[in-house]
Amino acid sequence: MLALTGLLGACAEPPPPQAPCPEPLPVSATQPSRAEPPSLDDRAAIDALLDGWHAAATRADEEGYFHAMTDDFVFLGTDATERWDKAAFRAYAHPHFAKGKAWSFRSIRRDVLQQGDFAWFDEDLATPNLGPARGSGVVVRHDGNWRIAHYVLSITVPNDRFGEVKRLLREKPAQTPKEPPEAPSDGL
Length: 188
Description:
CATH class: Alpha Beta
Number of strands: 6
Order of helices and strands: HHHHEEHEEEEH
Strand order of the largest sheet: 2-1-6-5-4-3
């Protein structure tokens, strides 16, 4: 923007004869392009990535699960204390994978929008342990491959039951951990 301001300001006074005023940039060059649904190929690749990621957890394939993530991946879980980078999330998840039983999420609806090498999604999840849940996140294409950069897991709460949830939270507020908590024995 500073360069554009400088460029526009440079022509506030008549330019010297040897330096003609540059042509104005088209509006599209100064504004980001709009997000759009991905192409069929990109949508298929993103769906395969996310479905494969969920399937890797179901079959306790730790390597496959964490390979689907970027190096700077961030996971936001359902607990207020759960904001983990890839290493911390792996430390949390490893005991589940090591036992051969992680968690089982299956997308039953997913919407995806894309802008270049970035796409974001939201999905409704069928989960045996959490009940109805949602996931949302960002995937990034790097060297032709899509990887998950950010994932947010949410539990849905019916609006007419939210008062009960607020009461429960007042009784025992969330704590901020100094390190990832121990993995629960029953997984997610």
